[in-house]
Amino acid sequence: MSKAQNDRRYKVEKKLVAAIRDKMDALAHAQFLKDRDGKSKNPSHKYSHLSRADRARIRRSKIQYLRNEIHLILCANGFTPHVRDPRIPKATVAENLAIRFDFDGIIHRPESGQLSDPYRSAKQAYLETIRQEGAVSEPEYPFKSYCLNTSPVWQGLSRFANFRRLNSKIIAQLQKKRIPPSAVQTMNYYDFVDAISESCKESRARPFEGARSKNLKMFASCYGDEFFRIMTSLRYEASAVHKMLRQMRNGTTPEIIDLHHKTNVTNFRELEKPEEINLFPNMLLTFIHPHHRSLHFDKGYDIDKNLVFFGGYDPLFQIRRDPEKERQYLLKTGQLAKNAKTR
Fold first, then answer.
1. Total number of domains constituting the chain
2. SS3 for 119-175, per residue?
3. How high is the pLDDT of residue 137?
């Protein structure tokens, strides 16, 4: 493609991005004004002479107009509104939290009130013994008496390789805190997070490398050259693009970039293998605004599953997956063998 053709497509893309961004910003502002007018005794000056009902009607009309405009633009550029199968249940709160934990690798230590009664009672008894006696000499229950698979919550968590690798560390914490093996079957999500948190506190290390970090490293390794070409064609300075790639190779997200779940977390059961929700094939690297926001607009929009980078609405600024590249990367880094061992 000639430079002149490339420049023309860039100019069209720039106008399209600006149009979507401006309409989304206008929609957010209209929704803000609608909410404010409904609560405030001093509505915005433009419609202050109207009744509250008339103001609400005008706001709703404007909001619907902007929604329709954005919808038409997205559909014209290859997006389709996501249609959820009502027969497939959404992710529960615990499942949503577990998926996010696996993705980010960041612990949010639970509060005492979130723990199950058997776990909390046993832990408090242990802490009280420590307070009175200074130490606990011997574990009350043998290591082998614990079986995490008796817990329905663990059965869900263990779908993810990151959690499976923590099996022994969790049991070690349960044994240390004198949590009865019989309490395992009633443990909730927060109990497991608490045990993981205690283990990390002792080792002074994060529980695992989150899927986000792994996916960013994989993208930079497999698609760095294509990413550089597209970003420079979008008029980003070469030095800035190199900096973004360095950040991704270190597992961190550049400021203007984000990772998008093609099948979102709430609908993770729609996948043939729900446990693969955070794996690279379900990831899409994209700009935060308006690209990522447009994918989540309204009830969500579907995009080509074979895309790995959505740098623009024009295919010229997109990267398609190369499964062989990805397989070679996983072999090189030993991730295929590591995941197989923990199954």
1. 3
2. HHHHHHHHHHHHHHHCCCCCCCCCHHHCCHHHCHHHHHHCCCHHHHCCHHHHHHHHH
3. 65
